Amino acid sequence: MNWPRPFEIGLQETRILAPAATFAETFVASGALACLDIFEPRLFEVLLRQLEQASFVHEVVAKMGAREIEQPERTGNAIALMLSRPALLRWVEELAGTGPLARVRGRVVQARAGEDHALGWHNDKGMERSVAITIDLSAERFTGGDFELRRAGTQEMLTVHHHDAPGSALLFRVDHGLEHRVLPVLSGGPRRVFTGWFFPPE
After folding, report:
1. d(CA 194, CA 110)
2. Could you tell me the CA-to-CA distances from 169 to 6, 127, 133, 157 in Å, in that order?
3. Range name among 56-65, 92-101, 175-184 with the lowest pLDDT average
């Protein structure tokens, strides 16, 4: 797996390991960037332990599909807070060429095999979203569940990503000209990810 490791999120701080400009061309061309091991290892172990004790409830996403969400959203809120540190916000601004970013909002979601858990094509656009992130938090491996990103209304696939490296992240552009979906999990799992968005100042 030849993904970069450009930053590391710890309990108290986020360390930038490589400049965003190094990856900007890849992000523009494919609409996405996969990053390996974004959490400090001990912190990631704590997050996984928390999720093993977490409760999940069924959610229907209008006109798109269904999944389960963490409830209450303890781990998701903690991850969103860590992703909102200024060092990472400035890095994402440079990577994606956005204006100022001020915060991340998101939640932990999961999909199970045999439950019709999937999301159809959509673009996440709205509420000033411009960059999204998904982070692999799965404790068990799974087949299926791929994330696909394409040019809207075409069959031109820009990125196909399988969350098969716990602690890895996929940053991707949110734009009216792009749309993405999540395919059903076929076996194993559940497929568990943090899914969130970077927002500008209010």
Report:
1. 9
2. 11, 22, 7, 19
3. 56-65
Largest CA distance in the chain: 43
2-16 pLDDT, tens digit each? 799 999 999 999 999
Helix (H) or strand (E) holding 27, with range, is helix 24-30
φ, ψ dihedrals at 180, nearest 5°: -140, 165
Give the model confidence (pLDDT) of 49-87 as tens digits: 999 999 999 999 877 899 999 999 999 999 999 999 999
Q: How many CA atoms are closer than 13 Å to the CA of 57, on its beta-carbon side?
A: 5
In this structure, which amino acid lies at residue 72?
Answer: P
Flag whether pLDDT at 116 surpasses 90: no
Residues across the chain: 202
Choices 1.10.10.10, 3.40.190.10, 2.60.120.620, 3.40.50.720: CATH for 21-199: 2.60.120.620
The span from the CA of 83 to the CA of 35, in Å, is 14
